[in-house]
Specification:
The protein is mainly α. The chain is 49% helix and 5% strand. The chain contains 25 helices and eight strands. The strands form two sheets. The chain has a six-stranded mixed beta sheet with strand order 1-5-4-6-7-8, with helices on both faces. A two-stranded antiparallel ribbon has the order 2-3. The protein is elongated. The termini are far apart. The N terminus and C terminus are likely disordered.
C-alpha cells in the first residue's frame, strides 16, 4: 500500500486497478450512461477495498508493535483524507458564491455536515434522496460515502483493539460475517419501494456490510500470510475464481439498477462477496488477475481515484445537459471527464501527495528550527498559501452564513392547488378559482380556454382545448407539472376536481385515491400524472387500479423529466395501461421530447405553450372516452288524448276510462227513459242533491260529439235508491247509440 512505511504490507497494483474500475463505473453512471445502470455499485467496491486494507494495516501494526496504534492510525487517515476534502469544499463554495449564488444557502448545511463527516445521516434526516430529486442536487452529496468510511475508521479500530486479543481469528471472522449479515437483513427489512431507498442507501447501519466483509477477508487472507502456490491446479482454480468474480461484478453493474428489489434483498451483499473474491485473487502471488488489473493506465487512475471521485460530482452537476450547457452525448462526456481529470491531477499533486508525504510537518519543523533567511523562506513557502486558503475560507464562510435561500421560481410559487367544481359535489378549497368560460356538452368539441393564469404570469392568448360534458365529475391528481396547468384543465373540464402539489410522490397519490374511494368522492373518470419526482413502481400502479377498478376510465400521463427515473417510470405506466381495460395513456413524453420551448429552465415545468399542449392532449384523450348516453326510461302507457278523436275513428273504438266519472246510482234511475241515447234526468229532489246548472238539452238525433260538460257529479255519500228494482236496461249492455264520454 503506497504511502505507508510498512515493509510487510507491500503495495498491490491490482487493488489500484480495481479502484480504477470502480470509479469508472461511478463516473459513467453519473454521466447518465444507460448501458451501466448499476454504476453506483462502484461505491460498494470501494467499501470492500477500504475494509480490507484498513484491517490489514491495523493487524500488521499489532503484529509489528504489539498494539493497534490508534493515535498513529487516525493521524494517517486524517492526513490522507482531510486536505483533499477541504480543498474540494473551498473550491465548491468559491464557484457557488461567484457563479451560482442561489446554491450557497443550500450548500451551507451540506458543507457543515461534510466537515463533520455525517453527510449520510444529514441527508437521511433532511429527506434527500441520492437518486430522486428535481432541481440541482447538492454539490457535495457524493461525500455521503466518505462519511460512512470515516465513521467506520473511528469505530472499527477501537472494536478491533478490544476484541482481537480475546477472540481468535475464527471468532473474529464469524463476528464480522454475522455483522455483515445483520446489516444486509436490516436493509431488506427497512427497504420500501414506496418510501424510496434513501434510508437504506445512506444509512451506516445498512451499508456497513461491505466494509465488514472486507475486514473479515483481511483476517484470513492478509498479504504477508500468502505464498505462491506450488500446485498448478490450485493456481488455475484461483485465477478462475477471480475471473468469475470479476465477470459477476461486471454483470451486476450492467443488469441491476436502483429500482431493482433484489438489490436491497441481498444484491449489495452479493456485490461485496464478488469484490472480496477479486481482491483475494488480485493480492495473491499466484494470481494473474492482479497483473491484469495492475496495468499502467488502470494504476494511474487508481492512484488518483480518490481525487477523481471528489471532483467529478460538482463538475457533473454544474454541466447538466440542456440546463447548464447546450451539448450532450459523447461531446459532453469528454468535456466532463477532461475537467474532472485535470482538477484531480492538480489536487493529487498539490494537495494529496504533499500532505501524505508529511510536507506540512517538515515545513513546520523547518520554520521552528530554522534560523534567519532559511526560516523565513520556509515560512513564506508554506505560510503564504496556507494564509491565502484560510482567508478565502473565512470570506466564503461569511458569505455562506449571510446568504438567504432564494425565492422559488415563479412557476413554483404555488405549492399546491385544489380546484373543485360544483359538478363534483364538493366545495372549493384553498386554490384560485377556476377560470369561468363557456362550455359545451359535445364530446370532442373545441372550446377556447385562457392559459397562463398562474399568479404573476399574464395570459398569452387562447388555447384550443377539447371540451367535455359539464355534468360529468372527473378526479384529477398530479404533481407540480399539474399545478401549472390546473386552471386550464379546470376551465376545459367543468366537472373536474383537481388536486395537485409540488413534490408529490406516487405513494401520496395512491393514498389520496384510496381515501377518495373510501369516501365515495371519486369521479366517473380519473386523470393521474405522477412520476416526475421519483420512482413509480408497478406495485403502486396496480394498487391504484385496484382502487379505481369501478371507474369508467383512468387516464395516466407519462413523464418528461431529465432524471434517471424517467424511463423506468414510463415503462411502468405503459405496461400497466396495457394490463387494465379501463386504463388509457397520454404520451406526454413523446409529444414534448426535444421541444425545450415548452419548458422552463429545469426542463420539467411548463411554459404557457407547454400548458396548451399538455391540456390539449389530456382533454383530447378524455373526450375520446365520453360518458355513455343516459338510459331510456321504461315504457309507459300512452297518455289519454288531449283532443277529441278524429271523426273517422269509430266511436266504439274510443276507450272509456275504467273508473267512470258517471256513477251507477245517478245514471240508473227507477223509471227508464224512452230515449236510449242519454241517461234519464233525475226528477226527485230527495234522490239527488241539487245539481249544478243543467247541460243543454240533447239534440233530437245522435251526434258524434259529446256534450261539452259532463253529467252532474254525485255527492260524497250516495243518496238512497227509492226502489230496489233494477233498471229496465242492463248497465253492462252498451247502448245502440254512442254514449257521451267525459273529456279528460
Amino acid at each position: 500500500m503506497q504511502g505507508l512505511d510498512d515493509k510487510r504490507l507491500s503495495y498491490s497494483p491490482g487493488l489500484d486497478g480495481l479502484r480504477a474500475l470502480a470509479v469508472t463505473a461511478v463516473l459513467l453512471f453519473h454521466a447518465g450512461q444507460r448501458w451501466i445502470p448499476g454504476g453506483f455499485l462502484g461505491v460498494e467496491v470501494f467499501f470492500v477495498i477500504s475494509g480490507y486494507l484498513i484491517t490489514c494495516v491495523l493487524l500488521e501494526s499489532r503484529e509489528r508493535t504489539g498494539g493497534v496504534g490508534l493515535k498513529q492510525f487516525w493521524f494517517r487517515r486524517a492526513r490522507r483524507l482531510l486536505p483533499a476534502v477541504f480543498a474540494l469544499l473551498l473550491g465548491t463554495l468559491a464557484v457557488s458564491v461567484i457563479f451560482y449564488p442561489d446554491e450557497v444557502a443550500k450548500l451551507r448545511g451540506d458543507t457543515l455536515a461534510a466537515l463533520g463527516y455525517v453527510t449520510n445521516w444529514y441527508f437521511i434526516f433532511d429527506h434527500q434522496s441520492y437518486f430522486d430529486e428535481v432541481g440541482r442536487p447538492s454539490l457535495v452529496r457524493h461525500l455521503w460515502s466518505l462519511a460512512i468510511e470515516e465513521q467506520f475508521y473511528l469505530v472499527w479500530p477501537v472494536v478491533l483493539a478490544l476484541l482481537v486479543g480475546r477472540l481468535r481469528t475464527r471468532g473474529m471472522v464469524v463476528l464480522l460475517l454475522a455483522g455483515a449479515t445483520a446489516s444486509s437483513v436490516l436493509m431488506a427489512v427497512l427497504w420500501s419501494p414506496e418510501a424510496g431507498p434513501a434510508r437504506v442507501y445512506y444509512g451506516t447501519d445498512t451499508r456497513v456490510a461491505g466494509l465488514l466483509i472486507g475486514a473479515a477477508l483481511a483476517f484470513v487472507w492478509a498479504p504477508w500470510k500468502l505464498a505462491r502456490a506450488r500446485s498448478r491446479t490450485y493456481a488455475t482454480a484461483l485465477n478462475g475464481a477471480g475471473l468469475i468474480g470479476l465477470a459477476a461484478l461486471v454483470y451486476l453493474h450492467v443488469e441491476l439498477d436502483q429500482y431493482h428489489s433484489f438489490l436491497y434483498h441481498g444484491g449489495f451483499a452479493l456485490v461485496s462477496v464478488c469484490t472480496a473474491v477479486v481482491i483475494a485473487v488480485a493480492v495473491h502471488p499466484s494470481g494473474q488477475l492482479g497483473g491484469f488489473l495492475g496495468l499502467q493506465p488502470l494504476r494511474w487512475l487508481g492512484t488518483r481515484s480518490y481525487a477523481v471521485y471528489l471532483w467529478h460530482w460538482p463538475v457533473f452537476m454544474l454541466t447538466r445537459p440542456g440546463l447548464d450547457v447546450s451539448i450532450d452525448g459523447w461531446e459532453l462526456l469528454g468535456l466532463r471527464l477532461g475537467v474532472t481529470f485535470l482538477l484531480a491531477e492538480i489536487s493529487y499533486r498539490l494537495v494529496e501527495r504533499p500532505a501524505r508525504s508529511g510536507a506540512l510537518g517538515r515545513a513546520w519543523r523547518t520554520f521552528r528550527d530554522g534560523r534567519g533567511l532559511r526560516r523565513w523562506a520556509g515560512g513564506l513557502r508554506w505560510g503564504a498559501p496556507l494564509s491565502a486558503a484560510a482567508t478565502s475560507a473565512t470570506v466564503l464562510a461569511a458569505f455562506a452564513i449571510a446568504s438567504e435561500p432564494p425565492a422559488p421560481p415563479e412557476y413554483l410559487s404555488v405549492e399546491s392547488v385544489r380546484i373543485v367544481s360544483p359538478a363534483s359535489g364538493q366545495a372549493l378549497s384553498r386554490a384560485p378559482a377556476a377560470v369561468p368560460v363557456g362550455t359545451t356538452s359535445d364530446q370532442g368539441a373545441v372550446v377556447s380556454v385562457p392559459t397562463g393564469t398562474a399568479p404573476g404570469r399574464p395570459a398569452d392568448g387562447p388555447a384550443q382545448i377539447y371540451g367535455y360534458a359539464p355534468n360529468v365529475a372527473v378526479t384529477v391528481v398530479g404533481d407540480s407539472v399539474m399545478v401549472g396547468a390546473a386552471q386550464t384543465l379546470a376551465a376545459a373540464i367543468p366537472g373536474a376536481d383537481i388536486d395537485a402539489a409540488i413534490g408529490r410522490q406516487a405513494q401520496t397519490a395512491l393514498d389520496i385515491l384510496q381515501q377518495r374511494r373510501d369516501s365515495q368522492a371519486l369521479g366517473e373518470a380519473v386523470i393521474i400524472h405522477i412520476g416526475n419526482n421519483g420512482t413509480f413502481t408497478a406495485k403502486q400502479f396496480d394498487a391504484m387500479m385496484q382502487a379505481l377498478a369501478d371507474r369508467r376510465v383512468v387516464i395516466f400521463v407519462n413523464v418528461k423529466v431529465p432524471r434517471s427515473w424517467e424511463e423506468p417510470n414510463n415503462g411502468v405506466i405503459a405496461d400497466g395501461v396495457h394490463r387494465y381495460g379501463n386504463a388509457a395513456l397520454v404520451d406526454w413524453h413523446s409529444a414534448s421530447v426535444d421541444r425545450p420551448e415548452l419548458f422552463y429552465d429545469d426542463g420539467i415545468h411548463l411554459r404557457p405553450a407547454g400548458v396548451q399542449l399538455y391540456a390539449s392532449l389530456i382533454t383530447k384523450e378524455l373526450a375520446a372516452h365520453p360518458p355513455p348516453p343516459p338510459l331510456a326510461p321504461p315504457p309507459a302507457s300512452p297518455p289519454p288524448p288531449t283532443t277529441p278523436p278524429p271523426p273517422e275513428v269509430a266511436p266504439a273504438d274510443i276507450p272509456v276510462p275504467v273508473p267512470s266519472p258517471q256513477p251507477a246510482p245517478p245514471t240508473g234511475t227507477p223509471t227508464p227513459t224512452p230515449e236510449p241515447t242519454y241517461p234519464p234526468t233525475p226528477t226527485s229532489p230527495a234522490t239527488v242533491p241539487p245539481p249544478p246548472p243543467p247541460p243543454p238539452p240533447p239534440p233530437p238525433t245522435p251526434a258524434p260529439t259529446p256534450p261539452p260538460t259532463p253529467p252532474p257529479t254525485p255527492p260524497a255519500t250516495p243518496p238512497p235508491t227509492p226502489e230496489p228494482t233494477p233498471p229496465s236496461t242492463p248497465e253492462p249492455t252498451p247502448p245502440p247509440t254512442p254514449e257521451p264520454t267525459p273529456t279528460p
